[in-house]
Amino acid sequence: MKMKTNYHTHTNFCDGKNSAEEMILAAIEKNFSILGFSSHSMFPHAANWQMPAARHEEYFECVRSLAKKYSDKIKIYCGLEADFVPNISSDFAWQFERFSPDYLIGSVHYILGNGAFFTADGPVQEVREGIQRVFKGDGKKAVCEYFSLQREMLRTQKFLILGHADVIRIRNGELKFFDEGERWYKKELRATAKEAARSGVVVEINTGGIARGAIDDVYPSAEFLDILHQENVPITFSSDAHSCDTLDFAFDRAQLAAIRAGYLESAYFEDGEIKFCPLDGRLKF
Prior knowledge:
Blueprint: E1 5-6, H1 20-29, E2 34-41, H2 56-69, E3 75-83, H3 92-99, E4 104-107, E5 110-113, E6 116-119, H4 124-135, H5 139-156, E7 161-162, H6 172-175, H7 183-199, E8 202-206, H8 208-211, H9 222-230, E9 235-238, H10 251-260, E10 265-270, E11 273-278
Parallel strand pairs: 1-2, 2-3, 3-4, 4-7, 7-8, 8-9
Antiparallel strand pairs: 5-6, 10-11
């Protein structure tokens, strides 16, 4: 990978530990070519881990000012990780009109049903109780609803990158509420990959779960990546960084996962365009 990029970066504007400037300085030190910021946004609402609505303007002003300050050392882009919550979050097109972000990551965190919800990547106990409360303990229904929401987002919203496409796996190692080998689950992956291909998005290979010790694997899984490759869906590398020290965490594993799935190149976003660079299995991070 000749271009070292990361578009999934969180700061203390949401649930990240470091300031935007600290993240930029760390990215320069780690020889990044491009760094994109993507604060959690469920505008106009916000949970305690998302950026408050009132801070959006400040966030864009801050990052764009820093982009100018460090323009001779690194390219900086300012986006959002937009949460898709039907009838609650704003339309992504409205966010483009209101804030003019350089790009959006579209993500599904909340699984909804029967007038209740829980976060797919929340703490183990929250996920356990959520499956019981919302789906009466039926893990399959919870997983199917997660992917259904993701496909609805892909059909109805405009965004550049699909965030952590199978993050629903994050607590499955401990809770074992579904079997990734079952036919119904593979059908969900295939249907989601086809919708991603139709929408024209880039899917990130996300190492954030490894960085936080929640799962010893990238998102998407090896099988999901195989299917995405079969559907000609492009990939990019993302650390889902919440601190300076995780900006390029496990990028070697992410690149190896891409190569094993058959990918020969990765996508990156620059000057308003999606571009591609060849993968090099010999490159060390």
